[in-house]
Design a protein that fits this description.
CATH architecture: Roll
Largest sheet: 5 strands, mixed
Strand content: 15-25%
Strand order of the largest sheet: 2-1-5-3-4
Radius of gyration: 12 Å
Number of strands: 5
Helix content: 10-25%
CATH superfamily: Beta-grasp domain
Distance between the termini: 37 Å
CATH topology: Ubiquitin-like (UB roll)
Shape: globular
């Protein structure tokens, strides 16, 4: 099971900063995350199960959008970070 770190408003919604979730790729991991934390689903994905605009998912510090996207493979040793949209200026 991979460690998933939550940031910003996602921490408040889930009531935790990190969880351990099974999944062979990011898509499966997110599906499992939403089973245990359904309040995160609409904050992270849209109706077609694509990432919401500006949500960033990183695997060991690498943005999945620069690789295989939701099909990015994960292992038990990986650390996944999910960042909500951030505004400011």
């Amino acid at each position: 099971m991979a460690q998933v770190k939550l940031f910003g408003g996602l921490q408040r919604k889930a009531g935790t900063t990190a969880v351990t979730i099974p999944g062979s790729n990011i898509q499966a991991l997110l599906q499992n995350l939403f089973v245990t934390h359904p309040e995160l689903e609409t904050a992270v994905t849209d109706d077609q199960h694509h990432l919401q605009p500006h949500v960033r998912v990183m695997v060991n510090g690498h943005d999945i959008e620069l690789g295989d996207g939701l099909e990015t493979a994960v292992t038990d040793q990986d650390v996944i970070a999910i960042f909500p949209p951030i505004a400011g200026g």
